[in-house]
Design a protein that fits this description.
With 366 residues, this protein is α/β, with parallel strands linked by helices. It has two domains: 239 residues, Aspartate Aminotransferase, domain 2; 98 residues, Alpha-Beta Complex (Aspartate Aminotransferase, domain 1), CATH 3.90.1150. The chain has twelve helices and 13 strands. The strands form three sheets. The chain has a seven-stranded mixed sheet with strand order 1-9-8-7-6-2-3, with helices on both faces. Helix 3 packs parallel to helix 4, helix 5 runs parallel beside helix 6 and helix 9 runs parallel beside helix 11. The N and C termini lie far apart (68 Å). The N terminus is likely disordered.
């Protein structure tokens, strides 16, 4: 397969005015060597609250140690990575770089994570919606309908959340591959794997060699417990990554966040994270079964994420009982098709027991 031809075809999806855009050349853009750094108008003294003095210097735009650690974690080449301020920044960048305002559309599959629609709105990109189908096995993406809607509606970006938030189901890899093939040269298929560590399914990165119009979003916010560090990753064809880097604001990853993330990806930290993910998967099964036996619970959806979507006969009363017990869950009743549903993130076994006790009408009556 001709790599250059793939790059050219993929870059034709980028806004024409940005394909050769050089972006801002920051003081850290060029690899310069020296002992006295006077090129970035930084303070020569450290802040009194920063005894190490590292924060007086601007960080590397793409910190090499972090980028290498993430590439190893996800099994990809560092050139395929764009590191930024959570997945939200990558979503925003993709929409701004790919979509001509008022013309190029963004396709989503509601009910789903809301930032895709926010990114489209901010860029004045038409929003196409192909609702998830609620069936016996749970919510699923109608990939055939997505392909038709994307082609007919002029979508430049198709966002697939897998596992889907808030419904929990993963999108089959063979379906993602078929969709990407049908939209080759027309649209980029972006697979958001924010909850991928909790799923048994392989990553869509395994499809990218054959389908360069697939990109994958990953984050350290969920399984790796680094939400406040705001480390998100876009994995894509290197040619697209270069364009996105030119359009990214300078210095997106603060040095303390990068250092924390590198420490959080050490062998010891990763081993503990894997153990906690395994424990959470076990809790997911236990809590799902227990919830299904409670009075007032209409349905508990299967989930590949670290949460469960639950329908209630009286969702308002269930939400109130949980709040009275000091438990805060996500109210999904404003989302399409979810007028009676709450999303419950899985916590420690003790926290999960507290949820079950609050929702047990027999215990509440006692």
């Amino acid at each position: 397969m001709n790599r250059a031809g793939n790059d050219d075809g993929l870059l034709r999806l980028v806004r024409a005015d940005l394909r050769g855009f050089a972006g801002y050349s920051s003081a850290r853009s060029n690899a310069l060597q020296g002992e006295v750094w006077l090129n970035a108008n930084e303070s020569p003294w450290a802040n009194p609250a920063d005894p190490g003095g590292g924060s007086r210097r601007y960080p590397e735009p793409q910190p090499p140690a972090l980028r290498d650690a993430l590439a190893s974690l996800y099994g990809v080449d560092p050139a395929q990575l764009l590191v930024g301020r959570g997945s939200d920044e990558a979503i925003d960048l993709l929409v701004r770089v790919m979509c001509e305002p008022g013309r190029d559309a963004v396709l989503i599959t509601p009910p789903v994570f809301g930032m895709y629609a926010v990114g489209a709105r901010l860029q004045d990109a038409p929003l196409l919606e192909v609702p998830l189908v609620d069936g016996d096995a749970g919510f699923a993406v109608d990939l055939d309908a997505v392909a038709v809607a994307a082609a007919q509606g002029g979508a430049k970006l198709v966002f697939l959340c897998s596992p889907s938030n808030p419904t929990g189901a993963s999108v089959p890899l063979d379906g993602i591959a078929a969709l990407a093939a049908s939209l080759q040269g027309r649209a980029l298929v972006v697979v958001d794997e924010a909850y991928g560590e909790f799923s048994a399914q392989a990553s869509a990165t395994t499809l990218m060699a054959a389908h360069p119009n697939i990109a994958v979003l990953r984050t350290l916010s969920k399984a790796h417990a680094l939400a406040a560090a705001r480390i998100g990753v876009l994995i894509a064809d290197p040619a697209l990554v270069r364009v996105l880097r030119a359009c990214q604001a300078p210095y997106p990853v603060p040095t303390p966040c990068a250092e924390l993330a590198v420490a959080g990806l050490s062998d010891d930290s990763l081993a503990r994270t894997r153990a906690r993910v395994a424990q959470l998967r076990g809790e997911r099964t236990r809590v799902q079964r227990a919830l299904a036996t409670l009075p007032g619970v209409l349905r508990v959806y299967p989930s590949d994420g670290n949460y469960l979507l639950v329908r209630f006969a009286d969702a308002d009363a269930a939400f109130a009982r949980l709040l009275a017990a000091g438990v805060v869950v996500r109210d999904q009743r404003a989302a399409p098709q979810l007028g009676d549903a709450l999303r419950i993130s899985l916590g420690t076994p003790e926290q999960n027991d507290r949820v079950l006790a609050a929702l047990d009408a027999k215990e509440a009556a006692a």
